[in-house]
């Protein structure tokens, strides 16, 4: 994780503690006032997200390594199994869309490990911005700050490359949208999908 956050010169990285909560909320709301004109965070938003004081600190963020394929796909399949009507992906399809994609480099696939198991990940596409194409945390490891840690590295990567935007897409699950809004993202486009059984 230190290598991924190396551009943050002069700063130290440590786990959030209960003593930090008020300062972090104040900082976030200062940014919100500047960006959107009103504060969006309350103390409970942060404490519930991280389940203080039991913040999971034994997390390793790293990039893709050969041999991660099956475990990374298993994590994604677990995360998206709750989506109604979604067919499971095959290893060949996953590889074609990620590690075999033209121009792929290991830095494009961020993985979160907990006690040696891949529990989260984000596949990034560099295209005049950072596009988060696949982003998930295994269901039994949610609400531990893993998603936020992955997005922190993702946003930093976009900033380091001089981009003004980092984007992703999600369905209309309100909890997901609320999470993204809390870290400063906003809805830029919205689509309605309609279908009929024939």
Keywords:
198 residues, alpha+beta, five-stranded mixed sheet, 5 strands, globular
Walk me through what this model shows.
The chain is α+β, with helices and mostly antiparallel strands and 198 residues long. Helix content is 33%, strand content 16%. The chain has six helices and five strands. It has helices at 21-35, 43-50, 69-80, 91-97, 146-160, 174-182, and strands at 59-63, 109-114, 117-126, 130-137, 166-168. A five-stranded mixed β-sheet has the order 1-2-3-4-5. A hairpin with a 3-residue loop joins strand 3 (117-126) and strand 4 (130-137). It is globular, with a radius of gyration of 18 Å. The N and C termini lie far apart (50 Å). Residues 52-57 have low confidence and may be disordered.
The gist of it:
The chain is an alpha+beta fold and 198 residues long. The chain contains 6 helices and 5 strands; from the N terminus they run ααβααβββαβα.
């Amino acid at each position: 994780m230190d290598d991924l956050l190396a551009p943050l010169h002069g700063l130290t990285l440590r786990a959030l503690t209960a003593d930090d909560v008020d300062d972090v909320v104040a900082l976030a709301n200062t940014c919100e006032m500047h960006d959107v004109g009103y504060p969006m965070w309350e103390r409970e938003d942060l404490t519930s997200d991280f389940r203080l004081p039991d913040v999971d600190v034994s997390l390793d963020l790293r990039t893709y390594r050969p041999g991660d394929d099956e475990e990374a796909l298993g994590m994604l399949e677990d995360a998206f199994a709750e989506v109604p009507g979604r067919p499971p992906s095959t290893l060949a399809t996953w590889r074609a869309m990620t590690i075999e994609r033209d121009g792929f480099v290991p830095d494009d696939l961020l993985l979160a490990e907990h006690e040696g198991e891949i529990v989260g990940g984000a596949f990034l596409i560099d295209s005049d911005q950072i596009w988060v194409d696949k982003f998930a945390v295994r269901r039994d490891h949610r609400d531990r700050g893993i998603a936020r840690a992955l997005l922190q590295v993702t946003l930093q990567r976009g900033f380091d490359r001089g981009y003004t935007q980092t984007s992703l897409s999600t369905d209309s699950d309100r909890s997901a949208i609320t999470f993204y809004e809390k870290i400063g993202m906003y809805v830029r486009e919205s689509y309605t999908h309609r279908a009929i059984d024939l």
